[in-house]
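Why predict the complex rather than its parts? Because the way molecules touch one another can change local conformation, and only a joint prediction can capture that. The input here totals 585 residues.
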Amino acid sequence: MAAHRTRRVSRRRQRREDARRHAAERAHRSPRRTGRPPIVELRDVTQVYPGGHVGVERVSLGIERGEFVFIVGPTGCGKSTLIKLLIRDLEPANGEIMIAGRDINQLERKRVAYLRRRIGTVFQDFKLLPNRTVYDNVAYALQVIGEPRSQIRRKVPEILRLVGLAGKIHNYPDELSGGEQQRVSVARAFVNHPPLLLADEPTGNLDPVTSVGIMQLLYRINRTGTTVAVVTHDREMVDKMRRRVIEMADGRVVRDVAAGAYHDESTSEFAVRVRNEMGLQEGGK
Amino acid sequence: MSRFIFFIREATRALRRSAAPSAAAIVTIVVTVLLLGVLIPVLYSTGSKTEDVREQIALRVFLYDDATRGEVAKLEEGIGGINHVVSTEYIDKAEALEVLRERLNDKNIVDELNSNPLPASLNVNLDDPDNLETVRAELVPPGAGGKPEPISPIIEEVKDSREEASEIRAVTGAVKIVLAIIAALLLVASLMLVGNTIRLSIYARRREVEVMHLVGATGWFIRWPFIIEGLIVGFLGAASAVGILFLGKVTIVDPLSERFALVDNLNTIDFVPLVAVLVACAMAVSALGSGVTLRRFLRV
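Output of the joint prediction:
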């Protein structure tokens, strides 16, 4: 027992020293130098699915606190794999994934639940509990963390008002439109006020008008200080919002630009051709 | 505490919302418990029957009619001194006739006899039927010529009820084995049925479990409502089965045992402990079934 504890302590110390060393390297490398570690940092992450399909390959990237990031790329390029890695739905074969400075793959399995309470997630298929009302779906995220009932009664209607669903509080998910269901999902993801919110194609099932509403919602959430990462195919949205864009292809990050567009406007022949076909002028936006 | 209430509310909500699978699980449990409720007393009573037979095994030492009181008393003392003999009991000719009269349905047969053909006897009760052979050897040791010679001249014959007993034992033994096999097969089948039903009802909700995981619910937070649900299902199933068993006992077994002494004489298990065991087992199996099945979906 004592030996076990010492071993554990020394392992922890080892990890701390590692973290310090990494931090020093980072400070040396990165021009963005803040006191706190970035909310998300991937170092050389490779993930291979059983059967040999490579999900992501040697991906390194960092997302600072308060950023709004789009992750774009063709289907199968590893965007969703990336999201799954961040909530430890998958574990990488190689590399480190740090959330708020901690390597999440060092977490014990039972601590994974606590990690997920600090990360809001929104998915294309909403992932609502079908046999619960809107209220209960959002309340569940609070019940999970042991929030007292009085707090739940206060916070749930408040967040539902924020997402514009105050009138549908006692409806079941199948009585709502897609856009409304996604708003419930966003409300559930944000009701704990997590520091990080991940959205995997949140507008993939929605029409353009509804999509704008969801994206505005995510933007408003970002304005409260929450880091938001959105995986999307919605070219128009990305181009309109002019935020940081990380483009992936074949499991690798091929472009990472601040305030960018869906496609690399300057070099991509495809983009040039599309813009010409659409009658858009260079730099006309 | 508030968390416990939350789990119970979750469990009852799930029961209400998935009524059909819950009902299926309850019905399979009813069937299993009914089977057990019938088979356990039956097995138990055949067991007690063989015990009775074993206890009855004793040696009977038949005496010549010309034995005097004094000789009998001396022999009785001698037999009492043999190892493994618990007690002896002298039954004279008149008593033997009385015993026979009681056993026969037609009492007049005995009265029609002119003289008493029955010999007097000593019943020798043993501490264990297994010692029958040793005691018999003491009573009838091999004589000088190698032929068995009784220890007293007044002994006509030494008999035991073993032949009879072993037959009864063979029959009840076979009955017991067959019943046990049937019971075991039925039990295995119904346990698998219960397990399967629970699996299905949980499988239908695996997406729900996945979503719970996504919002950061711990394994036990997800598991408890399912276990409580299993407990409730097990209790409801067992309670209905016990109700049916009780009805059966009152309407069928009790009147029968009043009319036929045989049924009453059998030493069956009491109703209350039986019910307690059945209900406890049903709840345990159902709750464990839920908990174990869930493990598959709880892998992170």
